[in-house]
Amino acid sequence: MTATLAEINSQIQAHDDKIAELRRQAEQLRNQERAGVIEELRRKIAEYGITASDLRLTARGPGKRSVSASPSKPAAPAAAKYRSPTGETWSGGRGRKPRWVVEALAAGKSLEEFEIQ
Asked: Which sequence spans correspond to the domains of the chain?
């Protein structure tokens, strides 16, 4: 027996409705479980005297919390590998080349000529 397009579309709609209902039920169950988990965590926090700093939590807006990375120092500038005849230096790292490097390369010079010994 061959189904018509209308019948197939009707079946798809029925399945879509069932999927939507199952997703609503799953969300309700998740919210119920979440409430229990939150209550259990609150009891443990109170029992052990845990603070937000112990958990390394930082505020990101009303009611929003996230785990922050340990505080780090800003990266130190890379050591210079190249020096221009006028004393300008460049580490040779990522990003745009300094103008003096671009001009020297365009004039046919090589980076090796500017390496700091």
From this structure: 5-67, 82-114
